[in-house]
Amino acid sequence: MNVDEALTILKEHGYKYTGKREDILSFFATEDRYRTAKDLLQYMEPNYSGISFDTIYRNLHLFREVGILESTDLNGEKHFRMKCAHHHHHHFICKDCGLTKEIETCPMETVKTELQSFAIEDHKFEIYGLCPACQ
Amino acid sequence: MNVDEALTILKEHGYKYTGKREDILSFFATEDRYRTAKDLLQYMEPNYSGISFDTIYRNLHLFREVGILESTDLNGEKHFRMKCAHHHHHHFICKDCGLTKEIETCPMETVKTELQSFAIEDHKFEIYGLCPACQ
DNA sequence: TCACAAAACGTAATGAATACGATAAAATGT
DNA sequence: ACATTTTATCGTATTCATTACGTTTTGTGA
Fold first, then answer.
1. How many domains does chain A have?
2. With contact defined as beta carbons under 8 Å apart, do B102 and B32 qualify?
3. Cβ A90 vs Cβ A72: under 8 Å
4. Considering CB atoms only, which of B78, B114, B129 is closest to A120?
5. Facing A105 at nearest CB: one of B92, B111, B122
6. Does B86 score more than 80 pLDDT?
7. 3-state secondary structure of A110
8. How far is CA A107 from CA A72, A124, B29, B106, in A?
9. What's A128's domain CATH number?
10. Which Gene3D superfamilies does the record cross-reference, listed alphabetically (chains A, B) (predicted)?
11. Measured distance CA(B2)–CA(B8) in Å, rounded
C-alpha cells in the first residue's frame, strides 16, 4: 500500500487530512518492515518538535483500525507495518532489523478440522530469525 | 509435566528447593492453560502474604529458561503455562479463559523451502478464539 | 552446625501505553 | 469568505507490567 491509497482510505472513513498523518504514512510506506511507536517518534521529532505521544499512538491505532497498518507484539513492544492487502499471507520477521518476508504457506485449512467445537476468531503464524543482510 | 518432574529439573540445574517454588509449580501443574504473573501472585498471596514481585518474576523466568514453563505474549502481557515436553506442537488459545488445546499441524517443513537464505531461529503459530465452554 | 551461595524481601525505577482537559486546526454549509 | 462543527493535537499525568537492587533470610553441602 502506498501513501495515496492510505489517504484515500482515511477520507473514505471521514478522517481528516493533516501533514503529520501524511508524514506518518510515508514513513511506513518507505520502511517495508515492522517499526515501533518510538521509531516513528524519532522520525517525526526533527520536523515536528514537541509532537506528543498521544498523536503517535492515536494515529497508529486509527490506521490499524481502518486497515492501513497491521501490528504484532515483539518482545513486549507493539510493532507496526504497512498492511499488504492483496492476499492472505504471513511473515518471516528479522529479529535484528524488523525486515519482513512474505510466507505463502498457511495451515489454517487443515487446522480447522482439528478444532471442530472451537470458535476460531484469529490466528498468528510468524517465523523469526535473521535476514540475509543481518547474518 | 508434573511437579516432581519439574523439581527434578530444578535440582539437575543446581537450583534450590523452596516451598514457594513447589507452590508455584503446583499452580501451573493444576492450571492447564496460560496464566499471567498477576494470576500467580493472587494464588500465592493467601499463603505467602507480602510475597514480592521479584520472587514471582525471577522464578517465572528461571522456570522458562530451564524448560519447565513456556510463555507467549497475549495483548501486551506475558502468559505462562506448564511446558508439554513430549512432542512439538502448537496451541489454540481461548481469549476468555486462557485454556489451550494442542494443534498437531505444523507447517514449518514446507515453510523452510520458502526461506532458503534466511536463518530461522524460532516460530510461533497460535490460533485464538473461544473454547466450547466460553462460547 | 557452620559457612557460603542462592533466594526472597521491600521498594524504587523503568518503559510502554493510555487518559484527559484545553487548545488548535481542518472540513463543511451558508 | 466566515462561522460552525467536528476532529486533531498538545502537554502532561497516570496506569500497568516488568525490571532492578541493596539487604536480609534461607537451603545446602562440607
1. 2
2. no
3. no
4. B129
5. B111
6. no
7. helix
8. 19, 11, 30, 8
9. 3.30.1490.190
10. 3.30.1490.190, Winged helix-like DNA-binding domain superfamily/Winged helix DNA-binding domain (1.10.10.10)
11. 10
Residue B104 has pLDDT above 80, yes or no: yes
Q: What CA–CA distance (Å, rounded) separates A40 from A81?
A: 11
* C-alpha of B32 from chain center: 9
Q: Provide the grid cell at A48.
A: 515536528
Expressed as residue numbers, the domain containing B30 is 3-82
Q: What is the mean pLDDT of residues B24-42?
A: 94
Asked if residue A75 and residue A102 are part of one domain, the reply reads no
Beta strands (DSSP E) in chain A are 35-36, 69-74, 77-82, 90-94, 100-103, 119-130
A100 and A123 together in one domain? yes
pLDDT tens track, chain A, 135 positions: 888 899 999 988 889 899 999 999 999 999 889 999 999 999 999 889 889 999 999 999 999 999 999 999 988 899 999 987 778 899 999 988 889 999 999 989 889 999 999 999 999 999 999 999 998
> Are A111 and B95 inside 8 Å of each other by CB?
no
Q: How many other CB atoms are there within 10 angstroms of residue B30's CB atom?
A: 10
Distance from CA of A120 to the nearest CA of B (A): 5
Judge if A70 and A11 occupy the same domain: yes
- CB contact, 8 Å: A116 with chain B? no
